[in-house]
Amino acid sequence: MTLQKRRILYSFFILLFFILAPILISYSLGYRYNLTKGIIEKTGVIFIKSFPKNASIYINNELQSNETPTQITNLLGNLYDVRVEKEDYHTWQKNLEVRPQETTFAEEVTLFKNNLEFVNLLPGDFTKLLVSHDKNKVALISEDNLIESLTIYDISDNESKTPFDSSNLELIAWTNSNQNLILKNNSDYLIYNTITDNITSLFELTNLNFTEIKSDYFNDNVYYGLKNNLLYKIDLASKEINLVTNERVLAFESWKTKLLYVTSVNNKYFLKSYFNNESTKLLVLPNSINYKFIPSDQNLLALLDLDDEIAYLLEPDKEEIFKKYIKNVNHLNWHNDYLVYYNNSEIWTYFPEDNSAILLERTAGNLKDAFWHPGLVNVFGIIDNTLKIYELDSRDKRNIIDFLELNDYNLFIDKKGDKLYLLTEQNNITGFYTVEIQ
């Protein structure tokens, strides 16, 4: 090869280097040519995390090499169809926008099973169900020839006992210790200790027929009863019965060391607290005789005006007790301090930390209940006979699953959120069942 040809070849490679080097460096730094926009831009990333993990990921219908959790890199700025699939689970799908030099997160992808297997924990013609606060014990009522039996099922050890039966039993509430159960037997209230099997009749103790009974926040031996709008304190240990206040009480709730109650004086309505034998006025309320307290298990408490369908959110531990009011509320359920509430046609969630609310459903169907999944990124709703699951992530479309057809509305979800417990019939066998949903 002549000297001139060598020089030409040498110059060609130098020129090629200066042309390709910036391209290769830009490529390694994540820059790509966007045909749609006609520009060179830096790529973005999608990070995907699912529960359960090890789910397949499709980007624009193309299967990715890695399963969840993972990140998909070198994506040009655009909208991408993202699909997460796992065998025997409902598919999660959403259009997500990727922006240059940014990471788009989908780290709360919750997958629910579509192949449900029901396990009969306890056969029987159960009609009522009430789970303890820690979700370890379940009270069940079954009926046979007008005689109702109480059964206590312990989820932690899969054992049950039927301590007594009677006529017209009604499950009222578990105490905060999850040890005692309040029941109503005709016009009498019973306190049943699930550890000792001791049963206390409040009528036999007090000779009073109460219209409402609630337990003390801390003390399983102390209860509060309402009769003719007078509030009494009942101590099972000392067998003492004392009138709390001479005021006309419409609703009450034991909250930690305080006793909160709604009272009316001269046709004016107030929220008051009772502590150390002193009553303190907290709020002036609208005129209504139908108030109901619904406490969370942390810091907030709702006072529901059932007549005007208004929920007052309260922080009883703070000096300024009033936090917010919400209109058009028929009922509500808490998970920690997060709220899901509903009326005849809508389901909403409320987040106290930023005072935000999200509309999940507007329906013409019969809306019967709504409650949280413990992961706090999904909500369950019962409309007509269908249990539906709503995703909170509203980017693109909200994933909504028609999850289960119900023949009974007595159900609850466990602490982890991977099992439902319910009264149902499977293969002509009625009973108390569980089903894995994740």
What would your notes on this structure say?
This protein is mainly beta. It has a domain at 43-110: Carboxypeptidase-like, regulatory domain (Immunoglobulin-like), CATH 2.60.40.1120. Helix content is 7%, strand content 57%. It contains two helices and 41 strands. It has a four-stranded antiparallel beta sheet with strand order 5-4-7-8, with no helix packed on it. A hairpin with a 2-residue loop joins strand 24 and strand 25. The radius of gyration is 30 Å and the shape is globular.
Detail the topology: elements first, then pairings.
Blueprint lengths: L2 H26 L2 E4 L4 E4 L1 E8 L4 E4 L2 E2 L6 E6 L2 E8 L6 E7 L4 E8 L7 E6 L2 E6 L5 E8 L2 E8 L4 E8 L2 E6 L5 E6 L2 E6 L5 E3 H5 L5 E4 L6 E6 L2 E6 L4 E6 L3 E7 L2 E8 L2 E8 L2 E8 L5 E5 L5 E5 L4 E5 L7 E6 L3 E5 L2 E5 L3 E6 L4 E7 L4 E6 L5 E6 L2 E6 L8 E6 L5 E3 L5 E8 L2 E8 L2
Parallel strand pairs: 3-9
Antiparallel strand pairs: 1-2, 3-6, 4-5, 4-7, 7-8, 10-41, 11-12, 12-13, 13-14, 15-16, 16-17, 17-18, 19-20, 20-21, 21-22, 23-24, 24-25, 25-26, 27-28, 28-29, 29-30, 31-32, 32-33, 33-34, 35-36, 36-37, 37-38, 39-40, 40-41
Brief overview, please?
Helices cover about 5% and strands about 55% of the residues. The protein has 2 helices and 41 strands.
Number of strands: 41
Helix content: under 10%
CATH superfamily of the domain at 43-110: Carboxypeptidase-like, regulatory domain
Q: Poorly predicted ranges (pLDDT <50, ≥5 residues)?
A: 23-29
CATH topology of the domain at 43-110: Immunoglobulin-like
What's the main sheet like?
4 strands, antiparallel
